[in-house]
């Protein structure tokens, strides 16, 4: 059993409580204090959620596996500052104009051009796009370089054997 108390006088409410408006406040009161109120209010009923039961199982779809390419590591060319300065001057841009276009501070651009600062790969990409030049290159692996010379470096098996064709006679 639910024990209700009057919100005005504090007495226990026997029977149904009265819901009245007293000085603009909605209150639950006893029969004696209900005479103090000016109106009646009804509590708002809470909306009840219906349970939706499905007899069919929920289908799950497997996600496609994304093929991720091996990350390409790039290196910067050695004379970044000189290349940036030349490209900026060729386009007729000031430090301020270039800074506004790539959303970078002018002091950073000046330090890059003077060689005091090496740009990170993201900033190098912005500079490449804006100035239309190539600052990032794939790293050169000395082990992977192939010797592309046309002449072999010494004696080969072909130099040692004498090839005998049909129709030729031996000259012993």
- According to CATH, the fold-level topology of the domain at 75-137 is 434 Repressor (Amino-terminal Domain)
| Main sheet attributes: strand count, strand direction, barrel closure | 3 strands, antiparallel
Oligomer class: single chain
Q: From the alpha-carbon coordinates, what is the Rg to the nearest angstrom?
A: 44 Å
Q: Quote the average pLDDT.
A: 81
Looking at CATH, the homologous superfamily of the domain at 75-137 is lambda repressor-like DNA-binding domains
Structural class: alpha+beta
Number of helices: 5
The low-confidence parts are none
| End-to-end separation | 127 Å
Order of helices and strands: EEEEHHHHEH
Q: What is the share of helical residues?
A: 25-40%
CATH architectural group of the domain at 75-137: Orthogonal Bundle
Proportion of strand residues? 5-15%
CATH level 1 class label of the domain at 75-137: Mainly Alpha
Strand order of the largest sheet: 2-1-3
Query: Per the principal axes of the C-alpha atoms, what is the gross shape?
Result: elongated
Q: How many DSSP-defined strands?
A: 5
Annotate the secondary structure layout.
Layout: E1 18-22, E2 25-29, E3 39-40, E4 75-76, H1 80-91, H2 95-102, H3 106-114, H4 121-131, E5 136-137, H5 157-160
Antiparallel strand pairs: 1-2, 1-3, 4-5
């Amino acid at each position: 059993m639910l024990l209700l108390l009057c919100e005005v006088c504090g007495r226990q409410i026997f029977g149904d409580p009265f819901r009245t408006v007293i000085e603009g406040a909605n209150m639950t009161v006893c029969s004696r204090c209900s005479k103090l109120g000016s109106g009646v209010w009804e509590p708002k009923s809470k909306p009840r959620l219906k349970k939706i039961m499905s007899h069919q199982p929920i289908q799950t779809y497997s996600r496609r596996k994304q093929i991720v390419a091996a990350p390409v590591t790039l290196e910067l060319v050695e004379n970044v500052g000189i290349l940036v300065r030349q490209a900026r001057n060729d386009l007729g841009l000031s430090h301020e104009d270039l800074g506004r276009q790539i959303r970078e501070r002018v002091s950073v651009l000046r330090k890059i051009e003077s060689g005091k600062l090496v740009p990170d790969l993201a900033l190098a990409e912005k500079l490449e796009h804006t100035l239309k030049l190539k600052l990032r290159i794939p790293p050169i692996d000395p082990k992977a370089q192939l010797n592309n010379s046309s002449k072999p470096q010494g004696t080969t098996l072909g130099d040692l054997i004498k090839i005998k064709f049909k129709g030729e006679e031996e000259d012993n």
